[in-house]
Amino acid sequence: MIEVNFEKIYQAWRTYLLANSQARHFGVIFDPSKQAEFPYATLSFVGRPTEGGDLEGDELSVDLTFDTEAYINGGKYMTLYNIDDASARFFLELGFRRVGDSQITRVSNTVTRIMSRFTLRNYTGFFLKDIESD
């Protein structure tokens, strides 16, 4: 089975965004019922279906999919784009591609979100570049 270190990917993404965007608060799931600090960014693992295997049932490659979201409180829309752009650069450097358009929605009267999805087809255990995390 192909191992995917989700914690390492999350920490590398978080470190990259801290250095290259206006995001300062991070999580895996945004909970609007809790008092959140903004701007807030999330990274969610969507799936890893097997793309290829051998006759013994061993995985040869998988497809990895992640969703990124950024949240702001108020009308600082350029902050949303700044965080979304940094997330895209992080994943594109690893060999992912953006799937579809970024979607902007209102979560409440004051909170706005942008969401993007990134997929890496035929992941065999290696990215285009090594990822490092704190």
List key phrases describing it.
134 residues; alpha+beta; STM4215-like; 7-stranded mixed β-sheet
Explain this structure to me?
The chain is α+β, with helices and mostly antiparallel strands. The protein has one domain: STM4215-like, CATH 3.30.2000.30. The protein has helices spanning 6-20, 77-94, and strands at 25-27, 40-47, 50-53, 59-73, 97-98, 103-106, 111-123. Strands 1, 2, 3, 4, 5, 6 and 7 form a seven-stranded mixed β-sheet that branches. A hairpin with a 5-residue loop joins β3 (50-53) and β4 (59-73). α1 (6-20) crosses α2 (77-94).
CATH fold assignment:
STM4215-like
CATH-scheme architecture = 2-Layer Sandwich
Number of strands: 7
Number of domains: 1
Structural class: alpha+beta
Shape: elongated
First-to-last CA distance: 26 Å
Instruction: Give the CATH level 1 class.
Output: Alpha Beta
> Strand percentage, roughly?
35-45%
Please estimate the helix content: 10-25%
Count of individual helical segments: 2
Low-confidence stretches: none
Mean pLDDT: 86
Largest sheet: 7 strands, mixed
Order of helices and strands: HEEEEHEEE
* Radius of gyration using CA atoms only: 16 Å
